[in-house]
């Protein structure tokens, strides 16, 4: 994977209430890569059906940390749902890491999971299955159609806030209250 940051990388894409695509309704995605060829991101606020312990077990990785094993794995998007994406802090890169920002990376190689299971991994992580992808010009068109807000990435949103709070909190970082947006009606 490339180590070069890209134009909209390290932005959060926040789905506006009017976005009706069930893959992205009320999602927050970390945009990891963006260039003339398209964009790639990972949804950071939607739980999958798996825990990290189940992923470790499927991969044959031993882990004795019950809390780590109970960590939910996120549904990162509809593209490559069988592939793991580990968003993490720190300057260390792994076998297959993409630098999103100075201290933020996304890694797709097994070595980061093995290090996490040994207690030697990054301090803050989000593990997701799948990612989101946009072809050349597609994201720009969706931004022009007001399907998304772009918000500077925020470690608290990525790593600390409960999943169900991330959508409102991300929009709030730029002063937007989703309850006042078109299309919000009928949601709790």
End-to-end separation in angstroms reads 40 Å
Please outline the major beta sheet.
Answer: 10 strands, mixed
Order of helices and strands: EEEEHHEEEEHEHEHH
Unreliably modeled segments:
1-5
Which percent band covers the strand fraction? 25-35%
Structural class: alpha+beta
- Annotation, overall tally of beta strands: 10
Work out the helicity level: 10-25%
Shape: globular
Q: What gyration radius follows from the Cα positions, in whole Å?
A: 16 Å
Round the mean pLDDT to the nearest integer and report it: 92
**Helix count?**
6
Family: Belongs to the UPF0301 (AlgH) family.
Pfam family, one: DUF179
Protein name: UPF0301 protein H9645_11410
InterPro entries: AlgH-like
Give a written overview of the molecule.
- With 188 residues, the protein is an alpha+beta fold.
- It has helices at residues 52-59, 66-69, 110-117, 138-144, 155-160, 163-172, and strands spanning 11-15, 28-35, 38-43, 47-51, 72-75, 79-89, 97-101, 104-107, 125-135, 148-152.
- The termini are far apart.
- Residues 1-5 have low confidence and may be disordered.
- Pfam families: DUF179.
- This is UPF0301 protein H9645_11410.
- Belongs to the UPF0301 (AlgH) family.
- It comes from Luteimonas colneyensis.
Question: Key features?
Answer:
single chain; 188 residues; alpha+beta; ten-stranded mixed β-sheet; globular; UPF0301 protein H9645_11410; AlgH-like
Question: Nutshell version of this structure?
Answer:
This protein has about 190 residues and is of the alpha+beta class. It is built from 6 helices and 10 strands, in the order E-E-E-E-H-H-E-E-E-E-H-E-H-E-H-H.
